[in-house]
Amino acid sequence: MSSSPLIWVDGEPAQALPLPDRGLDFGDGLFETLLVRQGVPLFLPLHMERLAAGVDLLSFPDCIDAAKAQLSHSAARLSDLDWAAMRLTLTRGSAPRGYAAPLEAMPRIVITAAGLAADRSQQAAPLHLGWADLRWSSQPHLAGIKHLNRLEQVLVANQARDSHWDDAVVLDQQGNVCSLSAGNLFLLESGRLLTPSLETCGIAGTRRRLVLEQLAPALGVAVEQAHISPEQLLEADAVICCNSIRGLQAVASLGDRSWTNFSMCEALHQRYVDAMAC
């Protein structure tokens, strides 16, 4: 596989997106980023369930079966790679001008894939974070789903890059901790794990769900969603972040605060590796 990503549009190899497209015009769509191991998309049910929730929320025609079939077909092309990243994008497709969606929309399915150099079964180095200047917008109706409107993430990622951080912690409009630009957060406090609740903003990550429902319970560790203040985050015994490509990573520093206790992250990572093998 070349260094250039493979691209499929509606199941056919492509190098361009047919226009007009409501995903480009209005961000009218959804996406999933999947980790692929030797041609097999990992934790596919979690991704498809979140995608289905977004399809329902945005009132897209039912396209989950078609998206899953095209995803599996494209992933099979990656069987010679140990690890790859794949992005599945659904847009509402072509339509006349205007914000209102057409009554007979035909969703467009775009899949891109590229190989990954790092072994994703090995735990990545701890992260060095900063505080984002921007706060996530509050929109409870869209909270949790992975829609295409990502300008806020672009701005936060730009700040992290320019500040030489690995990523940045972003607060919500109420001043509570929400997430990184590209990942969910967990903090260890008195032997239990807490993760920010996502009532008004943020993405309900597949690895976040995995920690909540499988990995932490398997370790006998209590885990819950809560409103978390910046001060509470800084006072935590440990901080962990997660996303679909990086997996679980410990946080080494946030501003002037540093952590050296990574044992919880290491234990969760081992459970994560075990789950990937299932």
What does this structure look like?
The longest helix is centred in the first third of the chain and has 14 residues, at 44-57. The protein has 2 domains: 6-115, Aminotransferase class 4, branched-chain amino acid transferase, N-terminal domain (D-amino Acid Aminotransferase, Chain A, domain 1), CATH 3.30.470; 127-276, D-amino Acid Aminotransferase, subunit A, domain 2 (D-amino Acid Aminotransferase, Chain A, domain 2). A hairpin with a 3-residue loop joins strand 13 and strand 14. The two termini are 26 Å apart. The model has no long low-confidence stretch (mean pLDDT 96). Helix 5 (206-218) crosses helix 7 (263-276). It has helices spanning 22-26, 44-57, 64-76, 151-162, 206-218, 230-234, 263-276; strands at residues 6-9, 12-13, 29-37, 40-41, 84-91, 108-115, 127-131, 167-171, 177-180, 184-189, 192-196, 223-226, 238-243, 247-254, 257-258. The strands form 2 sheets. Strands 7, 8, 9, 10, 11, 12, 13, 14 and 15 form a 9-stranded mixed sheet that branches. Helix content is 27%, strand content 28%.
Question: What structural keywords apply?
Answer:
278 residues; alpha+beta; D-amino Acid Aminotransferase, Chain A, domain 1; D-amino Acid Aminotransferase, Chain A, domain 2; nine-stranded mixed β-sheet; 15 strands; 28% strand; folate biosynthesis; pyridoxal phosphate
Please outline the helices and strands.
Layout: E1 6-9, E2 12-13, H1 22-26, E3 29-37, E4 40-41, H2 44-57, H3 64-76, E5 84-91, E6 108-115, E7 127-131, H4 151-162, E8 167-171, E9 177-180, E10 184-189, E11 192-196, H5 206-218, E12 223-226, H6 230-234, E13 238-243, E14 247-254, E15 257-258, H7 263-276
Parallel strand pairs: 7-8, 7-14, 11-12
Antiparallel strand pairs: 1-2, 1-6, 3-4, 3-5, 5-6, 8-9, 10-11, 10-13, 13-14, 14-15
Helix pairs in contact: 5-7
